[in-house]
Amino acid sequence: MPTIVEVARRAGVAPMTVSRVVNESGPVSDGVRARVEAAIAETGYVPNAVARSLRSSRTHTLAIIVPDLTNPYFTTIASGAQAAAADAGLMLVVANTDERPEEEERALGMLLQRRVDGILLATAGDGADAIRRAAAQGTPVVAVDRKVRGPRTDSVRADSRGGAAALARLLVSLGHRRMAILAGPTSVSTSADRVAGFRRGLAEAGLAAPRVLHGAYTIESGRAMAAEAMQATPRPTAVFAANNFIAIGVLHAFADAGVRVPEDVAVVGFDDLPPSMVTFPFLTVAAQPAGEMGRLAVALLLDRFADPGRPPREIVLPTELIVRRSSGEPLDGSLATPTASRGAPA
Fold this sequence. Notes:
The protein has 346 residues and is of the alpha/beta class. Helix content is 43%, strand content 16%. The protein folds into 3 domains: 4-47, lambda repressor-like DNA-binding domains (434 Repressor (Amino-terminal Domain)), CATH 1.10.260; 57-158 and 290-317, 3-Layer(aba) Sandwich (Rossmann fold); 160-288 and 320-342, 3-Layer(aba) Sandwich (Rossmann fold), CATH 3.40.50.
């Protein structure tokens, strides 16, 4: 591997001059800079980023910790964050926790050891310990998608309560009165917010709180909860799946049981699915602006770098109600509702 000495020899300068060019740490004439840069290109010399970071206290690296990288929603958040980081000349490292708090703790420790400049965190738990550990090292954190408890920090998320309430209002307008909520873990803020929002939408219509089943944000859990929900007597005429993977599990379970959607049971969900995962758009959803969320999270980190002492900011983005076939026609046969609207912020 080429060394700084070889670059200096080829450029006809001292190694210290090469260091000044690489690290932008001292005055160098335009002519000498051009010779050094040409020598770097010819030799293929790669500066030692770790050594540079120790001198500058910056690694020019950000990290994002997500609970499920197989879910296209979180992949889209990470993609938006990566684009924003690249625009700022920064690298983004992605860590996946599989919704396990212990894996989040391990990933956080590794990232802090590598001295990343900032972390975007979609926590698998309440996030409090992660925020404290990062703060102790002086590493700023932006909470993404999910609320964190404990110390205040910058955050960006979508309006889960407003989106779920919009879905409830839609089902009420279609004539449904018996519904079930298939939610995520009780420890995750988005699950609690979506249950609360859906209940709020029903309460506005004078309807009692529906049955709530809690599971994991997975396809398998969606299957199991759908099967359990349909054992009720009388069974629900509509089901709210609290994320996209739960919704996929619901559709699979209903297909296996010969339950028609929406003829027998209407289904609505949270988070849209990319075209690559569905034959045609079918599911009525409250869609979150995942890519924008990732971009704004990076912007909050950059603002924090520029002004470390400013108060934490919370950004809550609206969801979009996208009405498709899975929610069905009104039970009384009247005209269907409009196909799209914006969820109101909480």
